[in-house]
């Protein structure tokens, strides 16, 4: 058996047995030194195209998953997903496209006060995380999406966020858009980090932030 074929088979075995998607680095650590992991992944991806189980990249990592056109066959074996409220859908979409974003900035886009309960739900589900604090008076907490968000919506990276129509189809937005909501130019870098402090660097002079995301009933 040739070396390339052996590497391809080894990658296939690792991905099949893995409990979560694996990165190129994860695979390289388990394979012989010098193994051409990108080649093996591309060979597997091409070989699996059009089959019932396909190799896909999500959040910069790789996994096997059921082909999208056959997903309906899995409905009886899959848990019913927790449905997000309209407020949570809008808030998640705003965070995804404008991150890192503060509560005040979310409110400015939606045109209504952001419910602490809504952010609490998104944090609990692991779709959103607290990124750091803005370099402005009060050091407001900023929010961003997580790798789980990318995995849930099948996105390789934030640069692959869909347009407005695709967002509605994916359940990221309801039919009625919040006032002032816009999808930014996809060519714009999705993250602007220069004005955000991580929590460690802001810890000395930052107030408690628990009240920023818990305690209120979710908007109806």
From TrEMBL:
Keyword Disulfide bond carried by entry: no
**Region of interest (Disordered), residue spans:** 199-220
Origin, by domain of life? Bacteria
Q: Pfam families this protein is in?
A: SMC_ScpB
Q: Which gene encodes it?
A: scpB
Its GO biological process annotations read: cell division; chromosome separation
Q: Where are the membrane-spanning stretches? A: none
Q: What is this protein called?
A: SMC-Scp complex subunit ScpB
The entry's keywords: Cell cycle, Cell division, Chromosome partition, Cytoplasm
The answer to whether the entry has keyword Cell division is yes
